[in-house]
Amino acid sequence: TADRAQTNVHRRRSPLLFLRLQVDLKVIWDISVDRLVLDSVETPDGDRYVKIFRRGGGTFGFEVYRRDAEDLSGWFPIGNFAHIPYETEAKAREAAARFAPWLSSK
After folding, report:
1. Pairwise CA distance, residues 94 & 50, whole Å
2. C-alpha dihedral over 17, 21, 23, 24, to 10 degrees?
3. Which pLDDT score is estimated for 20?
4. What three-state secondary structure class fits 35?
5. Parallel, antiparallel, or unpaired for β 60-66 and 76-77?
6. What angle is formed at CA 53 by the lines to CA 101 and CA 14, rounded to 5 degrees?
7. Splitting the chain (106 residues) into consecutive groups of 10 residues, what average pLDDT does each group show?
8. Which residues pair with 60 in a beta bridge?
9. pLDDT value at residue 34
10. Could you give the maximum distance between any two Cα atoms of the chain, in Å?
11. pLDDT for 104
12. What is the rounded distance in angstroms from the CA atom of residue 43 to the CA atom of residue 104?
């Protein structure tokens, strides 16, 4: 559609602004699924990150994301871990560290 084409043109013109917006949004609140993001830790090379969050119901969880530098579509989940509930933040972090080894260096 014309709107989508216009958006893609804008992304090509200002990819840094677009990526910065995505970084700001991933750190604060994931409104679409009622999650408060507690921590977001990227790999040193910036191609993956793990998000630790608290759900509205009081359980905790995590998800691992990836992005390709040459693709401006942004971050996408790669682990399918977000649906697994943990009783505490510590348990969610422990589980996340098994799939996101860069967490242990934080």
Report:
1. 12
2. 130
3. 44
4. strand
5. antiparallel
6. 80
7. 45 43 48 80 91 93 88 83 95 95 79
8. 54, 86
9. 79
10. 46
11. 81
12. 11
